[in-house]
Amino acid sequence: MKTGKRVLNILFAASVGLAAVPWAMADPEISSFAFVQQDGSLKVAGYLIHLYGIYIPPTEQACYTFIRPVPCGTRTALALDFKISGDFVHCIPRATNPDGSITASCRSGNEDLSAWMLQRGWAVTLPDAPVEYVTMERIAQSRDWYLGNPHRCHPA
Length: 156
Prior knowledge:
By secondary structure, the chain is α+β, with helices and mostly antiparallel strands. It has four helices and ten strands. The strands form three sheets. Strands 1-2-3-8-7 form a five-stranded mixed β-barrel. The protein has a two-stranded antiparallel ribbon with strand order 4-10. β2 (42-44) and β3 form a beta hairpin. α3 packs parallel to α4 (131-142). The N and C termini lie far apart (68 Å). The relative contact order is 0.15.
């Protein structure tokens, strides 16, 4: 009798754990319109998502006056928002953070958003980032497209 109860407890705990991570039972992809937050994270389908493998340092505030209504925010958040430009974002969750947010690999169109941010110098790699991300960061730095450059030019 104790073994049967133990099995039921294990099954119940497993089902509760899976309910806490909805993509574990269904489609692993989170897809929807993305709303870029001031820190460069994304709000996608109600989830707060941080891009995998990168850190987006805080930058100064700016406004894009060539768009109406005029959006204002950090330069990095504006650059990411401009890249996404209303497209659906598709994210594959990689980890759940202690605060409940998700770290995910995200794409807009056919482009990896972490790679895009690194190639243009808007982000730096984290220690667990893939080697190709580290390479992209170094190339951007060699072209003076990195965040610390006061004369930063935006690549096309």
